[in-house]
From TrEMBL:
It comes from the Bacteria. This is DUF4034 domain-containing protein. Residues 11-274 form the DUF4034 domain. Pfam families: DUF4034, Sel1. InterPro entries: DUF4034 (IPR025115), Sel1-like (IPR006597), TPR-like_helical_dom_sf (IPR011990).
């Protein structure tokens, strides 16, 4: 009789939980647990089933999950799996709160408190689970994970020390604080209040088991290994807490792997542990070239790759190693050889995105032509053939589409296949919500293709992506058609009208830089006549969308092309507002433009004294400004000029026009100097 596969077993467990047949679920899990604990069934699904994310559907909320688990625990208070699952649920909620604002943000005190209150529930549930089964591996393992990630609760430490833990309000005087209110709010959101009183004794299985001053991580690992010898999952978790993310490093991990804690594991299992440590090292900051660290990692890699490894592990190692080897040996071909080895692992082996971009750069942007490096080309060919066969990576699918359109990089010429692949790539970008990120990577590939003189394929790639709605590629084509691209574009492809169409399309799609470029293009009359009104509208839209410079360029456009009323608004309102913003990127330019407006009488009555003040203000902001220095020389460089300056100063009664904007005092015009020189 054929045995059910893992997915069938998982589906059965999911069904039993969804229908709340808790007794049957317990019996089923216990039957699966026996084979898993004894490590006698290679394909046992118990390890996969033992997680709330496996048993629950993605649509079920935390409140719904807690209600089901609570019902299970209340109906069967001696159920090991009910308590264990409840502990895992609370542990997971602690991480949800911990990462509420994302891993890059600092965790607030209220988050730590909310997470710790969840951990209290988790620990109580795991202690209950430990009391319900003689071999509670998952409870021990998750206690280790919880201790490593959040620390051991004070009340549990007290129990291990033989003391009676104080209630929370006696241990910490925080219950009336804002942090407390914000922290407990996380629990109230899922319908529970925090625990305030703790168990008064440990389960019998834990009493007198902890060594003096034994670290919590070490203790719970020892307990897990005592009931399931050579437990790979527990050791992997333990090693993870000695990784760089948790303040350790791969050297410390290797010490553990080579030490007595891992002595009972097989060579294959220890090699997997070593591979995990090396993957972390290769995936972090690359060691400096010619450093002892680089030599050490290369040696570890060579030694490990010489051992039997799971194909997925070997592929992962080679995927990260290629770019490192290329850097350490200062040789792109050395990196390409690593990826050739990756492709040799299996017909399905594929590198990740960064490796794919490296292969493209190493082959296409190399100083040698493809004809001179056939071995390098074969790596790129293998990459693209596999991308076509799988067609599940939008970046490589689009790259392959451009290649087959022109029969490049070892692929056949097949326009029909190219069209289908390009459609597939666009669809994948939509489905995977990676339109912007993949679009940027495709532009990197486009530049590599152009460096290799495949300019028509470059044009095709960007055009086809633009046709399929990529605003980023439409915007890039704007520069391409104007020959303002990174590589020279053949004259036959220069086209101002196409450039304007592309930038308009990108701007209408909401791409803010394109809005600004569109305004500039309309202002200069690209592909036709100057369109002042549209230019002003696009400047305004770019400014409203947050473009830092658009308000300055809108004001300068008004001074160049606007009506008298618009010129006055630029001089009286727009440019002074920019001067008042010390963080504005165009503050220096705005001061110079406003100075020229006063100097030439554009949008205002001419006043050389105000212009002189503004030009000196420009020199305060940028002492290297030659145009401002020339303007100052023109305004004060002769007797006639100084007379005009003095007269204009009297018109404004010597007011300091720049006082509100100046951070340091500008040079003052001596009141009597022009008069004295006139008398002489």
């Amino acid at each position: 009789m054929q045995q059910p596969d893992k997915q069938d077993n998982i589906a059965k467990a999911q069904m039993l939980l969804a229908t709340r047949r808790f007794l049957k679920l317990d019996e089923w899990l216990l039957s699966q647990m026996r084979g898993w604990q004894n490590q006698s069934e290679a394909d046992n699904a118990y390890g996969l089933m033992m997680h709330p994310d496996t048993l629950f559907s993605k649509e079920e909320t935390a409140v719904q999950r807690l209600e089901i688990l609570g019902d299970w625990q209340q109906q069967y208070p001696t159920s090991y799996h009910a308590h264990c699952m409840l502990g895992m649920f609370w542990h997971e909620q602690a991480w949800v709160i911990r990462n509420e604002h994302g891993p890059e943000h600092e965790v607030e005190d209220s988050q730590w408190l909310g997470a710790q209150l969840c951990c209290d529930y988790a620990v109580i549930s795991f202690l209950n689970a430990i009391a319900c089964h003689p071999r509670p591996t998952h409870a021990f393992r998750h206690m280790m994970n919880l201790s490593g990630g959040f620390g051991e609760p004070y009340w549990l430490r007290a129990l291990f020390a033989g003391k009676q833990p104080k209630p929370l309000h006696e241990q910490f005087n925080i219950q009336g604080s804002q942090v407390w209110q914000q922290g407990v709010a996380y629990l109230y959101q899922i319908g529970v209040a925090p625990v305030t009183h703790w168990p008064q004794q440990l389960p019998a299985a834990l009493q007198n088991t902890r060594r003096h001053e034994e670290d919590a991580l070490d203790y719970w690992l020892r307990m897990a290994m005592s009931v399931r010898h050579s437990d790979v999952g527990s050791m992997e978790s333990y090693l993870l807490f000695h990784s760089s993310y948790w303040g350790g490093n791969d050297e410390r991990q290797n010490q553990i792997i080579d030490g007595p804690l891992c002595a009972e594991f097989s060579d294959e299992e220890r090699n997997q542990f070593r591979a995990n440590a090396l993957l972390e090292a290769l995936g972090g900051d690359i060691a400096d070239r010619d450093s002892p660290r680089a030599a050490q990692l290369q040696q570890q890699l060579a030694t490990l790759l010489a051992q039997p490894l799971e194909p997925a592990t070997r592929i992962a190692l080679l995927n990260l190693a290629g770019t490192c080897i290329a850097y350490w040996q200062d040789d792109d071909h050395a990196g390409l050889q690593v990826y050739a080895d990756l492709f040799a692992v299996s017909p399905q082996a594929m590198p990740g995105k960064f490796a794919a971009l490296f292969i493209s750069r190493a082959v296409l942007a190399n100083e040698q032509s493809i004809d001179q490096q056939p071995e390098a080309l074969s790596v790129l060919t293998s990459l693209l053939i596999r991308a076509i066969n799988r067609a599940d990576d939008p970046l490589l699918t689009a790259f392959a589409a451009a290649a087959v359109q022109y029969g490049l990089y070892g692929l056949p010429h097949d326009p029909d296949l190219s069209e289908a692949l390009m459609d597939r790539a666009a669809s994948l970008m939509q489905q995977q919500h990676v339109i912007e990120s993949v679009g940027k990577d495709l532009l990197v590939l486009a530049h590599d293709m152009a460096i290799n003189d495949d300019i028509e394929a470059t044009h095709y790639l960007m055009t086809e992506m633009a046709r399929r709605g990529s605003a980023l590629h439409s915007y890039e084509l704007f520069f391409f058609y104007r020959n303002a691209w990174h590589q020279d574009v053949p004259e036959a492809l220069h086209n101002d009208s196409n450039a304007l169409d592309c930038v308009l399309s990108a701007a209408r799609s909401g791409l803010v830089p394109a809005m600004f470029s569109c305004a500039n293009a309309l202002r200069e009359g690209l592909g036709g006549d100057v369109d002042y009104q549209q230019a002003m509208q696009w400047y305004q839209r770019a400014s409203d969308a947050g473009h830092a410079s658009a308000d300055y360029w809108r004001a300068s456009c008004a001074l160049d092309l606007g009506s008298e009323a618009e010129k006055r608004q630029a001089v009286d309102i727009s440019l002074p507002a920019i001067l008042a913003n010390v963080e504005h990127p165009e503050r220096f330019e705005a001061a110079y433009t406003l100075g020229m407006a006063w100097m030439q009488g554009i949008g205002t009555k001419k006043n050389k004294y105000i212009a002189w003040q503004l030009m000196n203000f420009v020199l305060e902001l940028n002492p290297e400004s030659e145009p401002a220095r020339q303007a100052v020389n023109e305004l004060e460089g002769s007797l006639r000029a100084r007379m005009g300056l003095w007269q204009d100063k009297r018109k404004v009664e010597g007011a300091d026009f720049t006082a509100a904007y100046r951070q340091s005092s500008a040079p003052a015009l001596p009141d009597e100097q022009p008069v004295a020189e006139i008398r002489d």
